[in-house]
Amino acid sequence: MRRLPIELWNPGIWLTLAPRQNWPKKKLDPEDWQGFQKQVERAEAYLRTHPPSSKGVAIFAGRDTWKFLPLEATVEDAVHWGTPNLAPLLWLWEEHKPYGIVKVSQRRAQFFLYWFGEMRVLEDNEYTPAPTKKKDMGPVARAFGVRVSRGSNRDVFEHHQEAQYSHYYRQVAERIDRWCNAEHLESLYLLGPGGVITAIQKKIPLALHERVVPIQKDLGWASKAELHRRIERIVAKHERERDTDRVETLLSAERGVVVGIDETLVRLQQGKIRGLVVVKGLDESLNRCGDVCG
Fold this sequence. Notes:
Helix 4 crosses helix 5. The chain contains seven helices and eleven strands. It has two domains: 4-95, no CATH class; 99-244, Nucleotidyltransferase, domain 5 (2-Layer Sandwich). By secondary structure, the chain is α+β, with helices and mostly antiparallel strands. It has helices at residues 17-20, 30-49, 87-95, 151-183, 194-203, 224-252, 261-269; strands at 4-9, 56-62, 65-71, 78-82, 99-104, 108-115, 118-126, 137-141, 146-149, 187-191, 212-215. The strands form three sheets. Strands 7-6-5-10-11 form a five-stranded mixed beta sheet, with helices on one face. Strands 3-2-1-4 form a four-stranded antiparallel beta sheet, with helices on one face. A two-stranded antiparallel sheet has the order 8-9. Helices cover 39% and strands 22% of the residues.
């Protein structure tokens, strides 16, 4: 199999690769070591002339291979040589689940997909109420010189208007339900004025409530760039709180909890683990033994 290195680093700190070139030397024969150095120099030269604007990059480089991938997510600085090591990318894939963003108002619903730090517009729907007759105006009120609507006609008009908005909120809730189930969204953030958010939440199926995060902020004025900036902070905060809650729930359980590498591995081999929490950056070496291990 042709040897390929995978190099991951963050823009701005890629020069730290130079001191790290020493770490694989003991594992490589002289020919491989020369090839490794050549590819690192190649990557450094490319980044000098093509400074990346993304938050991170992944480079697959070899004698007959060059693949440069910009990443809209922060990655740890690392260099690998040999059979392609996809573990760092799998970590990224696991950490960056797709999220749904729905920004609503009384007349508009915008759907965004937020994934790997990027936000893409999927739908932008304007709601137009069906035409209805105007409120029947009564005689001029002497005190103010304006007409007032008659009681029964005003009630009919307002009831008709409420029914239209209720239909609109139901449509948004049904669209959210279909989208979350079809795309297996990790969470969905529902942004908008408090009254609109509450009305839509009431029409979302109960089974989906745990995945819907209400954000009662009227951001109708915000541009896509400003919305993206705010969403980044909201998502990061929600992920920290969710991860903390999962760990605390796990550790507070009175039974059925295993802590530590050795015992966890034993339970995994026995097929007794339902959920697993692993600390990122855990660097351990494991060996698979054959029949001699018993």
